[in-house]
Predict the structure.
Amino acid sequence: MTRLLAKQRQRGIVDVIARDGQATVEDLVRRFGVSPATIRRDLHDLQTQGIINRSHGGAVSVTQAAPEPPLVQRGAAQAQAKRRIGEAAAALVPEGATVFISSGTTPLEVARALAYRDDLTIITNALNVANLLVEEPGITVVLVGGIVRRSELSLSGHLTEQALAELRTDFVFMGAHAISLEHGLSADNLAEVRTDRTILQSGARRVVVADHTKFGKFATARIVPLTEIHTIVTDDGLDPDMVVQLRERNIEVIRA
């Protein structure tokens, strides 16, 4: 009977969070007439199932990420945060390193911050990253082949994966469409998911660069679980409770 009541209460909690987008422990205690400890246990159970995300003092809904607009339309969104993220991520790279930079607006900011460095090898599947760096004298640019996705200015597919199978890098910097504790990194373009996995496998240190709006969301296809990621560089808008939970999973979190 107790288990049944808990399940009914948890369904009610999910309904509240789905309707309002969020709920505090205090609100849920008043609504369901139970102790704060009971509500916290319920929220923990629901987060473990991937139904909600814990936040400071309560919980928020896990939402499906909207389809991404083309690259050129995303450049202005969170522009200052992306610039800070790019600079903080670039600061991780020592001289002489070999780095992979994926496609996306935030990885492009990493490339921009590395543009004037010396003695770097940068491998990429992003046409705009290669174009940005090709004339920099201190950087050797390697552009992997593949099928061009025009909306992202990226290369993917079998040829890309074959090239990546022969390469090892010190760092991979990858953007993200959606990030959640339960679903890891996910994306909508099914054709690119396998390429993204292969990119991550090439790196000794795997770094995700993403602003706070990408968290607490999931998309159609999972790329990798968060256990495959070593470092996340984000902005200071990320919920502190999410930061704690990421660090509990042994992920380094840098807020720029």
Notes: The first helix runs from residue 2 to 20. The domain at 71-255 is CATH 3.40.50.1360 (Rossmann fold). The mean pLDDT is 87.
